[in-house]
Design a protein that fits this description.
- The chain has 307 residues and is α+β, with helices and mostly antiparallel strands.
- It folds into 2 domains: 4-100, 3-Layer(aba) Sandwich (Aminopeptidase), CATH 3.40.630.30; 129-240 and 270-305, Aminopeptidase, CATH 3.40.630.
- The strands form 2 sheets. Strands 1, 2, 3, 4, 5, 6, 7, 8, 9, 10, 11, 14, 15 and 16 form a 14-stranded mixed beta sheet that branches. A two-stranded antiparallel sheet has the order 12-13.
- It is globular, with a radius of gyration of 20 Å.
- The chain has helices at residues 17-26, 35-42, 86-97, 112-117, 151-161, 167-173, 213-226; strands at 7-11, 47-52, 55-65, 69-77, 102-108, 121-131, 143-145, 179-186, 189-198, 203-210, 233-238, 240-242, 248-250, 275-279, 291-295, 299-305.
């Protein structure tokens, strides 16, 4: 039996972030080819690695943003070491690092009850869309390269949708290889932007923020058209909730959620019309002209707890 002293948790180096991305890929999470650099830029002390007898066996990210916002991710242990208590030790170390923060996380459905026992509350579900024949012809006019927009405007617009400043992350994310970033302008005002990046399988779009659905659709189609092959395009969208009056009420706009500080802990770890495969539920974002195809399999949930 291996003693507790043989398992050690430390801050990852930049080179070790690749280990976490590799584990995520093996779980079918399909990360981008260059995600590691941007994640590390967001908080270079926010990635923890667990080593058993000197060999890495698990990881977790506990990224802290300005304004006491934290986010948990990449919570993984190699399959042969699961169920032995290493995951919970990684979790505890991550939560300790984010003490005092309002914390968010994405989690698989199977772990939802464990996160709730740790004080997290469900905020919204993520729905994955797959475009199996995304267009290669861009819509006409109105879009520019995001790099041509002053970064101050991008950061200001990003804060409408993201609850904390993240300049270091965006500087890296928008400049990564095998990617493209486009912006919609209304006069001199930024009215939306989106990024597409190459992944292990196909391409992913994200973020995609816009003033309205029509602008989002134009950005989406142009990003699809700019890729250099015909592989599938994926888009993850938070589920939209409806109020009784029928208006859209986006769950991700919720603020001020509280948790029970009781010490509970979780368990183990004209336009082209692309065909869209809807992975589980339909969302309120419908790329212009898109047809929704067969329901598939993927649904993840985001949760948040506040201090």
């Amino acid at each position: 039996m291996i003693s507790a002293d043989d398992f050690h948790i430390a801050t990852m180096s930049r080179d070790e972030v690749g280990f976490a991305i590799e584990l995520a890929a093996k779980e079918g999470w399909n990360p981008g080819l260059h995600d590691a650099a941007s994640f590390f830029a967001a908080d270079n002390e926010g990635f923890l690695i667990g080593r058993l007898n000197g060999e890495p066996i698990g990881c977790i990210s506990a990224v802290r943003y300005p304004g006491n916002l934290g986010f948990i991710g990449l919570y993984l242990v190699v399959p042969e070491q699961r169920g032995k208590g290493y995951g919970i030790r990684l979790w505890n170390a991550a939560m300790e690092r984010l003490a005092g923060c309002n914390i968010g996380l994405d989690g698989v459905l199977a772990q939802q009850a464990n996160y709730q026992r740790s004080g997290f509350k469900l905020l919204y579900s993520n729905i994955r869309f797959e475009s199996v024949d995304a267009p290669r012809a861009a819509p006409a006019g109105g879009l520019v390269k995001l790099q041509d927009v002053p970064m101050s405007r991008v950061l200001e617009y990003d804060r409408i949708a993201f609850p904390a400043p993240r300049e270091a992350f965006l500087q890296s994310w928008l400049a990564q290889p095998d990617s493209a970033a486009l912006a919609a302008l209304t006069g001199d005002r930024l009215a939306g932007y989106g990024v597409i990046r190459k992944c292990l399988s196909g391409w992913k779009i994200g973020p995609l923020f816009a003033d309205d659905a029509e602008t989002a659709g134009r950005i989406y189609l142009a990003l699809c058209a700019g890729r250099d092959n015909d592989e599938a395009v994926y888009l993850d969208v938070p589920e939209v909730k409806r109020r009784r009056d029928g208006a859209g009420a986006h769950a991700s706009n919720a603020r001020g959620l509280r948790h029970r500080a009781d010490g509970h802990r979780p368990g183990a770890a004209g336009r082209a019309q692309p065909r869209i495969r809807r992975h589980h539920l339909r969302t309120g974002l419908n790329p212009a002209g898109a047809r929704y195809g067969n329901e598939a399999v993927e649904r993840r949930q985001s949760a948040r707890r506040g201090l």
